[in-house]
Amino acid sequence: MSEYKLAAAPRHQTGKGAARRTRAGGRVPAVLYGHGMEPLHLSVDAREFTFALRTDAGTNVLLELDVDGTPHLALAKEIQRHPVRGTFLHIDFLQVRRGERLRVSVPVHLVGEAPGVREGGRLGHDLHQINVEAEVTAVPEALEADVSGLDIGDAVRVGDLIAPRGVTILDDPEATVASVSAPTVEVEEPTEAVEGEEAAAAAGEAEGEEAAERPPAQ
Length: 218
Hints:
CATH 2.40.240.10; six-stranded mixed barrel; 13 strands; elongated
């Protein structure tokens, strides 16, 4: 699992106004808690935190927060973002210890080429995240789902996934991760030319019926 060192500064003022001033200075308000410790109000550099999330572990990156020279091992338990701009609003850091087991969500990546797709089937990725339990330093960056054996109508289920040693998958073993469905048959709409021919034929039939109903000329 990726680890990233991140400097954090104590925040001595809290509240909405103080939080806005913190964000205006390029930092993100945060709080660190866990294991019975008194919550610490902190701030971290927004750009540095962005770099931390760009590691392969993503939001599960293990962080070493340096608070005035004291290291704290932590995970970003909750990240609040602006609904439009996507900027960071607040971070909840959970203090953890090496050897501790945690429950987290990790991404599922599809690998291989499904034979059913070559036959015209459609590959569906139904489960993008999966819940696992693992030691804090051994949380996998992702789990792989091999689709190379899937024909049309086949599926990979949670129970088919292979987790690294020491990692326990918590989701329903019967849940579908990926599947190959049959191709959809599309019904072609009639072209304008065909519609025109049908309309002309219908008009001709109507004229013939009208002529047949006229009385013969005297």
